[in-house]
Write a structure and sequence with these properties.
By secondary structure, the chain is α/β, with parallel strands linked by helices. The protein is about 30% helix and about 30% strand. It is built from nine helices and 20 strands. The chain has an eight-stranded mixed β-sheet with strand order 6-7-5-15-16-17-14-18. Strands 9-3-2-13-20-19 form a six-stranded mixed β-sheet, with helices on one face. The longest helix has 22 residues, at about 65-90. The two termini are about 35 Å apart.
């Protein structure tokens, strides 16, 4: 019988997407030995499959508990992008073309005006555009569009390049990475606390373990399991007659993003499809139809590529960040549609929670402890 292998670290981070790397990098910067463990099968991973939009107001309202966090994440993003590029020499295609939310009927226009009323007090740069101004920026847009709100500082990145750059940075910091395939992941528990994880015949020992497994955070062993489920999103890359000058988003969830080489990314579906990562022809046709309806002047869209990814959505639609009820366990999960924007800052705060032993005030309401109050045994 083959003997087991033992690995030792200060902290183990489960998950190699932006949630996991966002935690691992600041811990390594502070001199901690970090072991990053990820699945061998990367199909469905949220980070490289996303649209890369850095939108702090998506799904928000004036009193939403995540709004201040996301606004701060947006303000800090350019500085981190400069730092990342200086360390890795990798261009992640970070730009700030802005995003325009448009209304296509009277009901949507009323909603848009309500959002303008509270968003104009946030300190976020926003501009209310009438149809005449929209037409100058987007001459190919549908005549059905009545008006919109433009956010000039909202940016975007290429998520696949971002993950590549973060992985490069992690290696330069000495972060060790391991992958497991079909071996079951188990916790090693000693003295009423966690002392590591086991997969197959590999024992990994550490004083703290972070669940940053994205959509698979809900498939971890108890007490590491989190109430997170996958939500599938399908995205299509198209080629039109002209370049898109800025991102555009309809009030009912459809978006178009300018991409490299004059391409345009369109999306996205929101589907409860379990862990099935596949592109469906009817969904692609629907997205192409919506692009043609919103931007008829771009001409017939030629599909270049289509893909699907799984977004991690928590039980209460809020991220789960920081301490977990069981000693030595931490969470960085449930980022849903804001992972690219919030992953770096959330990871820094998880690192602070691990290093200080205290949940930072900024993420106190996001702790997994909020779920343990509702049941005697968490994760059951």
């Amino acid at each position: 019988m083959p003997s087991s292998t033992s690995l030792h670290a200060d902290i183990i981070v489960l998950g190699g997407g932006i949630a996991g790397l966002g935690c691992a990098i600041p811990l390594a910067q502070r001199g901690k030995k970090v072991l990053l463990i990820e699945r061998s099968d990367l199909r469905g991973q949220a980070t490289p499959a996303s649209a890369g939009i850095l939108d702090p107001v998506l799904g928000m309202h004036a009193r939403h508990p995540m709004l201040p966090f996301l606004l701060k994440s947006l303000r800090e993003y350019p500085r981190f992008m400069r730092h990342l590029r200086s360390r890795t020499r990798t261009d992640v295609e970070f730009t700030q073309p802005g995003i325009l939310y448009v209304a296509k009927n009277v009901k949507q226009m009323r909603k848009l005006r309500r959002e303008w009323k509270w968003q104009s007090k946030l300190g976020l740069r926003i501009q209310f555009w009438k149809m005449e101004r929209i037409k100058k920026k987007f001459p190919w847009i549908s005549k059905r569009v009545l008006g919109g709100i433009f956010y000039p500082t909202v940016g975007k990145v290429n998520p696949a390049l971002l993950q590549k750059a973060l992985s490069h940075y992690a290696r330069d910091l000495g972060i060790q990475s391991k992958r497991f395939s079909n071996q079951p992941l188990k916790l090693i528990l000693e003295n009423a606390g966690v002392s590591g994880v086991r997969f197959g015949r590999v024992n990994c020992y550490a004083a703290a373990v972070v669940n940053a497994r994205g959509c698979w955070a809900g498939q971890a062993p108890r007490p590491l399991r989190l109430p997170v489920r996958p939500v599938r999103g399908q995205i299509v890359l198209i080629k039109g007659r002209s370049r898109l000058p800025a991102m555009i988003h309809t009030m009912d969830g459809f978006y178009m993003v300018p991409w490299s080489r004059g391409h345009i990314l369109i999306g996205s579906t929101v589907e409860n499809a379990g862990y099935r990562v596949r592109v469906e022809s009817r969904s692609v046709a629907r997205l192409l139809g919506r692009a043609q309806a919103l931007m008829p002047g771009l001409g017939p869209a030629r599909m270049k590529k289509a893909w699907a990814g799984l977004r991690p959505r928590s039980k209460d639609d809020l991220p789960i960040v920081g301490r977990m009820p069981f000693p030595g366990l931490y969470a960085a999960a449930g980022y849903y549609r804001s992972g690219i924007l919030m992953g770096i800052r959330a990871g820094q705060l998880v690192a602070r929670a691990i290093l200080t032993g205290r949940q930072p005030r900024e993420i106190r309401h996001l702790s997994a402890l909020r779920f343990s109050k509702k049941r005697k045994r968490y994760g059951g």
